[in-house]
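for the recovery benchmark. tokens below, seq after
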């Protein structure tokens, strides 16, 4: 019987998970891609197709662990390891690794402490490791009551499971809690998780750091440490917490020693014995306090930047400890106190700069090309999050950031100067060049598309309108159709006949209305989006899709004979709502050059 080729299972090999594919290929280990779910954000699904050539096989998980294992074991490979390729795949990867009796399994007893942002803090407390004070609930009144009793403003609110700064709010008062609750509870995050609860945590004053680690047999190495800068509030989103940049720090200093010692304690507490970890820690007046544990690679271009800085990719470290017996780990690991630990070498300085946009409109030129045209010496690569021709929105978290500029140079001073130049260009409108309508002028023709003049929003927000809102047939401009009322928690909603299937042309006239907060009599409400005005015009449509451009999500809905609206129980997260809007109208957004390809916004 011929010997089977060795293979590794990689669950959701998206975002930085693609670097695992490169490393596994280099050592002749086949990749079995397992997709944890098929309703993730478009940027995850696009990543699958972009890297499909690396997959020997693909298995789609259908919520039955044993069925997935059976499908994997039927394949003609010897499975030697299981990896999490991105945040959505962490839990399933841990479950598969344990059930398939992999030698590098961490077990699932403490899985919630490695995944749930609230439970990880509680586990630290149980183990005597300093942790953040917190309270969790989905009930608005309970959250407000705890905040008032605690009376220690500001506070931070976050969902139990998310990535990057998605759904993280900086709260100064009770009204901010109310707004954050209305904005996020009842939605679905980019990782496909329903947001039913908020975790309110004390605001950790200090400087935030990232500690990138790998573990083998319960021993730990810090392969890179970064100082992390965030903006707390912007003129267009005063309560947001927005990532600004992160850059690698020297491996040896008083702060680095404290970070490493604390990070090793955290890994022991949450039970991470094997694999990579991307940990965020705040250095406060009382010492280091955990922000969150992420048992995966550093997102985006993290592995490549670590390689540019230290000479060794974090993906190479991860493959070594999970699939190669920790050979490289054992060569570098130093036993004893953390102060005598392995120290990575800084060969070049690196910074990951978040591109921040404060305007809204259709991009008339590519973001990457606009940055490259500045000819800045340290700019290594630009990753735009929006394509030329698509609708860009103001940045309020990582999922709405305009993209990233990766900066590599021997001189930190040169990097700092280039960062200042980029920020100045952003403010001057030189990077995000926009038009109020799509530059490709996508309306078919004046005869086919009657005038689409803006229609004033109803004066009585939340009340049914006396008559339907007349809107012409043809394609609609999401920016210029109906201005949303000032009290609306989002931008403009659009209802269209047809189904949610991408690419289905719409033959009936769409109805467009401003988003409204509150309930409209006889209409029904849409959790996390708001309610609608008069639905007279939808009577003959049967079904429609409601798009929320500001939050990049949509719901599918149907209208019953009695005029009531039945909505999908959860909103569907998507990368760019205008792309679904375009697909429903039967056209494709403007193609872009290869260098403007969109990549995942997972941090």
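predicted aa per position
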């Amino acid at each position: 019987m011929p010997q089977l080729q060795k293979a590794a299972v990689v669950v959701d090999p998206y975002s930085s998970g693609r670097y695992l594919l490169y490393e596994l290929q280099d050592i002749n280990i086949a990749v079995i891609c397992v997709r944890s779910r098929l309703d993730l954000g478009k940027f995850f699904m696009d990543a699958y197709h972009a890297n499909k050539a690396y997959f020997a096989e693909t298995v789609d998980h259908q919520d039955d662990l044993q069925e997935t294992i059976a499908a994997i074991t039927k394949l003609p490979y010897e499975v030697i390891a299981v990896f999490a390729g991105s945040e959505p795949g962490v839990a399933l990867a841990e479950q598969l690794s344990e059930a398939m009796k992999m030698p590098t399994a961490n077990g699932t007893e403490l899985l919630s402490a490695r995944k749930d942002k609230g439970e990880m803090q509680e586990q630290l407390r149980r183990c005597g490791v300093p942790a953040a004070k917190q309270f969790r609930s989905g009930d608005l009144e309970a959250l407000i009551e705890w905040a008032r009793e605690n009376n220690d403003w500001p506070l931070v609110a976050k969902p139990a499971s998310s990535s990057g700064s998605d759904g993280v709010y900086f709260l100064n008062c009770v009204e901010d809690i109310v707004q954050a609750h209305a904005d996020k509870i009842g939605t679905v995050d980019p990782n496909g998780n329903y947001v039913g609860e908020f975790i309110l945590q004390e605001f950790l004053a200090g400087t935030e750091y990232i500690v990138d680690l790998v573990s083998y047999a319960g021993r730990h190495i810090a392969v890179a440490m970064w100082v992390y800068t965030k903006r707390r509030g912007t003129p267009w989103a005063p309560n947001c917490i927005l990532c600004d940049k992160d850059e690698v720090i020297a491996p040896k200093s008083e702060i680095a020693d404290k970070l490493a010692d604390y990070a090793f304690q955290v890994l022991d507490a949450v039970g991470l014995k094997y694999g990579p970890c991307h940990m965020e820690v705040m250095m406060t007046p009382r010492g280091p306090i955990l922000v969150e544990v992420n048992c995966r690679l550093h997102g985006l271009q993290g592995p490549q930047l670590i390689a540019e800085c230290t000479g060794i990719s974090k993906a190479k470290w991860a493959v070594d400890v999970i699939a190669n017996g920790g050979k490289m780990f054992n060569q570098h690991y130093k036993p004893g106190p953390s102060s005598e630990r392995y120290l990575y070498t800084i060969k070049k300085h690196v910074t990951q700069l978040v591109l921040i946009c404060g305007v809204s409109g259709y991009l008339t030129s590519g973001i990457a090309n606009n940055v490259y045209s500045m000819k800045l010496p340290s700019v290594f690569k630009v990753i735009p999050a929006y394509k030329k021709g698509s609708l860009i929105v103001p940045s309020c978290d990582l999922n709405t950031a305009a993209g990233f500029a990766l900066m590599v140079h021997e001189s930190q001073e040169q990097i700092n100067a280039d960062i200042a130049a980029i920020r100045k260009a952003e403010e001057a409108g030189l990077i995000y060049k926009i038009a109020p309508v799509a530059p490709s002028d996508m309306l078919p023709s004046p005869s086919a598309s009657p005038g689409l003049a803006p229609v004033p929003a109803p004066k009585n927000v939340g009340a049914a309108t006396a008559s339907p809102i007349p809107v012409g047939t043809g394609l609609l401009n999401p920016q210029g159709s109906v201005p949303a009322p000032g009290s609306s928690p989002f931008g403009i909603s659009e209802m269209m006949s047809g189904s949610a299937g991408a690419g289905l042309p719409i033959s009936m006239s769409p109805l467009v209305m401003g988003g409204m907060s509150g309930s409209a009599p006889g209409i029904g409400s849409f959790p996390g989006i708001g309610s609608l005005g008069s639905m007279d015009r939808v009577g003959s449509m049967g079904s429609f899709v409601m798009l929320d451009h500001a939050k990049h999500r949509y719901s599918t809905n149907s209208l019953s004979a009695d005029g009531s609206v039945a909505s999908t129980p959860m909103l569907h997260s998507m990368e760019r709502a205008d792309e679904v809007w375009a697909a429903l109208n039967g056209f494709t957004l403007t193609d872009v050059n290869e260098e403007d390809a969109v990549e995942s916004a997972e941090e």
